[in-house]
Structure formats: structure tokens, C-alpha cells
Amino acid sequence: MYSALNALVLALPLTVSAETVVGVYMYHRHGDRTPKALKPANLTDLGYQQVYQSGEYYRSRYVDSSADVKINGLSSNIVKQSQIDVSAPSDDVLQNSAMGFLQGLYPPVGSTSATETLRNGTTITAPLNGYQLIPIGSTSTGASSEDSAWLQSTSDCGNSEVSSNNYFASSDYTSLLSSTEDFYQDLMPVVNGTFDSDYVTFKNAYVVWDLVNVAEIHNSSINSSDLLTNETLFQLRTLADKHEWGLAYNESDDLRAMAGMQLAGQIVSYLNSTITGKGAGKFGVQFGAYATFMSFFGLAQLPAANSDFRAVVDYASSMVFELFTPSDDVSSSNFPGSDDLYVRFLFHNGTATNASEPVEYPLFGRSNSTISWSDFQSEMTKFAVSTTEQWCTKCGNTTGTCAAYADSSSSGSSGASSKSSSGGGSGISTAVSGVIGAMVTLAVVLGLEALIMLVAGLRLVRKPSTKSVSGGAGAAGAASEGAEKSAA
Ligand SMILES: *[C@@H]1O[C@H](CO)[C@@H](O)[C@H](O)[C@H]1NC(C)=O
Ligand SMILES: *[C@@H]1O[C@H](CO)[C@@H](O)[C@H](O)[C@H]1NC(C)=O
Ligand SMILES: *[C@@H]1O[C@H](CO)[C@@H](O)[C@H](O)[C@H]1NC(C)=O
Ligand SMILES: *[C@@H]1O[C@H](CO)[C@@H](O)[C@H](O)[C@H]1NC(C)=O
Ligand SMILES: *[C@@H]1O[C@H](CO)[C@@H](O)[C@H](O)[C@H]1NC(C)=O
Ligand SMILES: *[C@@H]1O[C@H](CO)[C@@H](O)[C@H](O)[C@H]1NC(C)=O
Ligand SMILES: *[C@@H]1O[C@H](CO)[C@@H](O)[C@H](O)[C@H]1NC(C)=O
Ligand SMILES: *[C@@H]1O[C@H](CO)[C@@H](O)[C@H](O)[C@H]1NC(C)=O
Ligand SMILES: *[C@@H]1O[C@H](CO)[C@@H](O)[C@H](O)[C@H]1NC(C)=O
Ligand SMILES: *[C@@H]1O[C@H](CO)[C@@H](O)[C@H](O)[C@H]1NC(C)=O
Ligand SMILES: *[C@@H]1O[C@H](CO)[C@@H](O)[C@H](O)[C@H]1NC(C)=O
Ligand SMILES: *[C@@H]1O[C@H](CO)[C@@H](O)[C@H](O)[C@H]1NC(C)=O
């Protein structure tokens, strides 16, 4: 009764205005997991539930036939692979989170829809009540993020690592390191089973907080838990936030935020392909680590809208970019021109549900959370990295695939994707395979049909074997191969 009323009230303002959402790009954090300090980290049942609920919420927002903000033409019940593009790094927690989310977004269709009759008359019903198989592409960077204490190392970007390391030389850092020494040492009895005392300092603020946070959620018997007062827990979290923000973003040194720049490139490329493809690609979803949120928040000046954006986002947080037009008459033959398109940014801290929906925030220090597509594109392009060449140049990497751009005769992004296939022939090193993975992701984002077919070929693969099978699929496998090496 209450929730029905609530849903009605929430739905009202959205249904009044005549507008059509033609495409969405989403970036999503994983659900609750075990601590980074105890590798390998796993998605917990709680985390599975969180991402599943988030998928259910976004189903009711974008996918369902009665959805509040239905994406124009998006298939409601049976997934159409060409309309949706899902990716996550080669990381078990993130891959599994993406899978759990998709189960909520496109639930099993039931045995009636998932039944076919063969030529010889035999009737076949798909397993698991018509569970839908949706391929998840592997992004090049971020491999094993959830097992890494030092997230910038998963960016693979030389100059970003240097930049983040500079944080450890800043006065912000050194003064906190010394002023919090006693605070951390006082917590030793709580964590001494896991960490040595020289590890427990502000230098490892996130990993220490992460261990305690996981214990606070899962463990009924924490060592010396009387030391963990609300105030201490708050301070641990706040210090971790400061530490991670310092590593993810610096106003006068954009390179630190390479993860956010790459994400910006992916967002613009995806939504641009939605426009140029007249709405063919409709829903891009990427799972990733919290540091990418922070880098992006910094670049997009979200702290100007709310200073809370300087903190680590909760598990299963999501941000979405909705591309819409103020008209309810849209089809591929009557697709709006870029002058009639707008972008709206929304964020939800933690699992989005009917009872707690994402909130709009203005980007780029503006006051309006709706922005025209051309403004959005030009603001994003100021920092977006969308080609391998840009990546190599900014990161200062000159070997492997980046060697192609080390001399002046460069050929741009189209050259980059053809190189990925020719490079495949001659023994690829791990580092190079990372870059090839980057180009594969880019190609997927650009909606190359051939690549979609390649990935769609993987859709009969069940969860545990996703990585090994994608490893067999030509260049796409390079990324997972690299990940297995770095995980080892
Ligand atoms: C994660 O799961 C693996 C088995 O799949 C197990 O060996 C490992 O200990 C688990 N990690 C934690 C922190 O529980
Ligand atoms: C029909 O074909 C399927 C698949 O080839 C096979 O498993 C099944 O035994 C066949 N049924 C009959 C009655 O021949
Ligand atoms: C880029 O350079 C850094 C530092 O030299 C290195 O750690 C990283 O593996 C390189 N990445 C690639 C993809 O070559
Ligand atoms: C941000 O970058 C500037 C210029 O490189 C540097 O002086 C400053 O210390 C950096 N701040 C932090 C917190 O890293
Ligand atoms: C951790 O500290 C507690 C309290 O000081 C002590 O009783 C315990 O033996 C210590 N455990 C280890 C593994 O050092
Ligand atoms: C608490 O102490 C026990 C025994 O020393 C250890 O096994 C456990 O990991 C400790 N808990 C934490 C959170 O460090
Ligand atoms: C819970 O905490 C106790 C004491 O710190 C520790 O011995 C135990 O291993 C922890 N359990 C889990 C599941 O982490
Ligand atoms: C600590 O916070 C929790 C919830 O945030 C609250 O239930 C509890 O009463 C607080 N404890 C103290 C001692 O303030
Ligand atoms: C958008 O797509 C068109 C056609 O593919 C391309 O020419 C243009 O460069 C793209 N713009 C951006 C910003 O990606
Ligand atoms: C998200 O929630 C955490 C506390 O759970 C808070 O520290 C952070 O500032 C919040 N972020 C935003 C953007 O609201
Ligand atoms: C959320 O609200 C929608 C209607 O807007 C409803 O169809 C859906 O069942 C609700 N989901 C949950 C989990 O209550
Ligand atoms: C925000 O921008 C949109 C699109 O330009 C415009 O329609 C709307 O009136 C603006 N809202 C406010 C409060 O300025």
C-alpha cells in the first residue's frame, strides 16, 4: 500500500513532461565484497543482492514496458544484444557484479518464451527457466582491481602512476601521515591478526579502513571491537576518503585522473554512436572501481555541486548519463538531430531502489543538471581520452602498441583498431596486450558490428568459464590473458 503510493508519487513528475530517452551510459560499482587485504576478494551474498536490486531498479526505470524513463525502443523482456553493451575489467568481483546486475535488468523469460521446436519435432526448453545470457566485455585497464591496494597500478598508465606517487610527496599527505600515527597505532589490537604495525598508517588508509568496514558488516566478533567507536569509524573512513581522493585527482595535474579521462572518452563515444547509429546502441553499462568515480567526479567538477563527491562511494553506487530529446515522437527514421538532444547526469550512492532513487547533479560547475548534447560533448572532450594514440601520448608509454605513436607518423584511431589485429600475430607481451584490450573496448563502444558478433558468439557461456572462453576469441582474449598474469 505504502510503496504503491510512493511509486505513484515518484512516477508523476517524470511522466508529465513529453520527452524521450534515446540512450543511457551507466558506470556502476560492485556490490559488497570480502576485504582487499585477504586476497582473493569475493562478491558476497549481500553484494550479489545489492547489484541484483540495482538491476531491478534500473529495469523499472529504463527497460520494463511500463518503465518510468523507458529507453526508446529498448527490448523489454528478451534482451537484444545489439542494444546493450556491458563491460567490466578482468576482475572476479566486478565481472560477477555485472552478471548479478544483468540478472535483475533482464530476468529469466520463463519456460514458455524459452522453448523451441526442432526439425524432428522435439521440443527443447532452455535451462534455468529461460535465464538470459548476456556477454560481458573485458575492459583493458582495471584488471584485478579488487585485489589491488594501489588502484592506480591497474591503470597501466606510466604518467598516472608517477602523478599519484607525487601525492606521497605532498604536504597534504605528509602532515596527515604524521598527525594520524597514534590514531592508527591505537587500532593495532583490532587488526594485528592481519597487519604488521608498520603497515597500519595513513599510507594504507584505504586498505585498513576496508578491512574494518568489512568486519563491521560481516563479523559478529571483531578483536577489541570496543576500540571501534562511531567516532573512530568515522575518522577511519574520512581519512581513507582523503587518501583515495589524493591519489585519484589533483586539480593542477589532470594526468592523475586517467581512469576518469578514459571513462569520459567511453561515455562520449557510446552516446555519440547512439546518435550516429540513430538509436541502434541504447544502453552502455560499465562496472569498475571507486577510484574511477573519484577521478571522474574531480574532472567533471562535481565537488562544486556537493562536497560529498570527494569521498569513496558506497558499494553498488551508480551514475548515469541520460541522452534525451524533449519530444515523444522518436524512431530511427525520425531520430532527433544533435541540436535537439540533451544530457542529464544522475548519481546514486549505494544501491538504487524504488525507495531511494538516483539524484540529478549539475556537471562542470554549472547550475543546471540538464545540458545540451553539444555543450556536453565539448566539455567532456576537454579531458576525455578516447583513442589509443591519445592514451599512449598522455601516459608517456612508447613501447609495445604505443611504439606506433612514438614517432611522428601517427594514424589516429582507425589505424589503431586495425593494428590490434595485425599485432596479434607476433608474440604479444603482457603490457602490450593491455593496450590491445583498450582498443577492443573502444571498438566495442564504437559499435563495430563485426566485434559485436564476435562477442555475441560468447553468449552461450556460463559464468565460471567467461574468462577462459573470451580468452579464445582472438584479440579480446588478450586482456584476460594479461589479467591472469598480473593476478598471479
Ligand atoms: C574467496 O573465495 C575463494 C574460493 O573461491 C577462497 O579461497 C578465498 O579465501 C575467498 N576469499 C575470502 C576473503 O574469503
Ligand atoms: C531430435 O534431435 C535432437 C537433437 O539433434 C536429438 O537430441 C533428439 O534425440 C532427436 N529426437 C528424435 C525423436 O529423434
Ligand atoms: C606503460 O608504462 C608503465 C611505466 O613504464 C608500465 O608500468 C606499463 O605497463 C606500461 N603500459 C603499457 C600498456 O605498456
Ligand atoms: C597537486 O599537484 C600540484 C602540482 O603538481 C602539487 O604541487 C600539489 O602538491 C599536488 N597536490 C596533491 C595533494 O598531490
Ligand atoms: C593482538 O593484540 C591483542 C591485544 O593486544 C593480543 O592479545 C593478541 O595476542 C595480538 N595478536 C597477535 C596475532 O599479535
Ligand atoms: C583477530 O585476531 C585473530 C587472532 O589473532 C586473527 O586471526 C584475526 O584475523 C584478527 N582479526 C583482524 C580483523 O585482524
Ligand atoms: C571474525 O573475527 C574474528 C576475531 O577477529 C576472527 O577470528 C574471524 O576469523 C573473523 N571471521 C571472519 C569470517 O572474518
Ligand atoms: C553508533 O551509530 C549507530 C548507527 O549509526 C547507532 O545505532 C549507535 O547508537 C551509535 N552508537 C553510539 C555509541 O553513538
Ligand atoms: C561521433 O561519431 C562520428 C561518426 O562516427 C565521428 O565522425 C565523430 O568524430 C564522433 N565524435 C566523437 C566526439 O566521438
Ligand atoms: C556516499 O556515502 C558515503 C558514506 O556512506 C559518504 O562518505 C560519501 O560522501 C557519499 N558520497 C556522495 C557523493 O554522496
Ligand atoms: C519498483 O516500482 C515499479 C513501478 O514503478 C514496480 O513495477 C516494481 O515492481 C517496483 N520494484 C520493487 C522491487 O518494488
Ligand atoms: C536547464 O536547461 C534546460 C535545457 O537547456 C532548460 O530547458 C531548462 O529550462 C533549464 N533549467 C533551469 C532551471 O534553468
TrEMBL record:
Pfam families per record: His_Phos_2 (PF00328)
Chain positions covered by the region annotation Disordered: 465-488
Transmembrane segments: 435-458
Keywords noted in UniProt: Membrane, Signal, Transmembrane, Transmembrane helix
Gene3D superfamilies xref list: Phosphoglycerate mutase-like (3.40.50.1240)
Family: Belongs to the histidine acid phosphatase family.
Protein name: Histidine phosphatase superfamily
Signal peptide: 1-18
Superkingdom to which the source organism belongs: Eukaryota
InterPro entries per UniProt: His_Pase_clade-2, His_PPase_superfam, Histidine_acid_phosphatase
